[in-house]
Design goal:
185 residues, mainly alpha, elongated
C-alpha cells in the first residue's frame, strides 16, 4: 500500500511539473509586448499632461478676458477639443493598461480622427493668429496664449502620431498572442 502511495505521489509530481511547463507565459512576461506597452503608456501620459497644460491655458484665457465679447471666437472650440482629448487619453490609458485588444484598436482608430480634428483646429488657430497680428500690428496677451496653445498642440500631434503607430503595433502583438490575452476582471 505504501508503495502504491509513493507511486501516486511521483505521478502527481510529474503531472504537475509537466502542467507548469506547458503553461504559456503571461503578457507581462513577453518582452516585446512589455516594451511596446511601456512606450505607449509613456506617450499617452505625456499627451495627457500636455492636454492638462492646455486646459489650464484655456481656463486662464477665460479668466483673463473681461467680457465675453473680448474672447476669441475659437476659445470654445479649444475648450471642447481639450475636454475631448482628456477623455480620449483616459480611455487609452485604461485600454493599454488592461490589455483590451478591441479597446486598443478602437483607441487607434479614434486616434486617427483625433489627429485630423486637432490638426484642423491648430491650422485654424494659426490662421487666426496671423490675421489678428497683421491687423492690429502688436502682440497682446490673448495672442501669446494662443501661440502657446498652438505650440503645445503641435507637440501633442507629434506624440499622437507615435501613439497611433504603437497602438497598431501593440494590437498586432496582442492578436499574435491571442491565447495569452485573457482579460482580467
Amino acid at each position: 500500500m505504501e508503495m502504491y502511495n509513493d507511486g501516486l505521489a511521483d505521478n502527481s509530481a510529474m503531472i504537475s511539473a509537466t502542467n507548469l511547463s506547458n503553461k504559456p507565459p503571461s503578457l507581462e512576461q513577453h518582452p516585446e509586448i512589455k516594451q511596446v506597452r511601456k512606450r505607449l503608456l509613456i506617450f499617452i501620459g505625456i499627451d495627457l499632461v500636455l492636454c492638462l497644460v492646455n486646459f489650464l491655458f484655456i481656463i486662464h484665457s477665460y479668466a483673463a478676458s473681461e467680457s465675453l465679447e473680448s474672447q476669441s471666437p475659437n476659445s470654445s472650440s479649444q475648450l471642447a477639443l481639450v475636454i475631448i482629448l482628456l477623455i480620449y487619453y483616459g480611455f487609452g490609458l485604461l485600454c493599454v493598461y488592461r490589455y483590451y485588444k478591441t479597446g486598443i484598436l478602437f483607441f487607434a482608430l479614434l486616434g486617427i480622427i483625433t489627429l485630423l480634428l486637432t490638426s484642423t483646429i491648430v491650422i485654424m488657430l494659426l490662421l487666426r493668429i496671423i490675421h489678428i497680428a497683421t491687423n492690429k500690428g502688436f502682440v497682446n496677451a490673448g495672442i501669446i496664449v494662443a501661440i502657446i496653445y498652438v505650440s503645445i498642440c503641435s507637440f501633442v500631434l507629434i506624440f499622437q502620431l507615435m501613439i497611433i503607430f504603437y497602438c497598431f503595433k501593440f494590437y498586432i502583438l496582442l492578436k499574435r498572442n491571442k491565447s495569452l490575452t485573457i482579460e482580467r476582471i
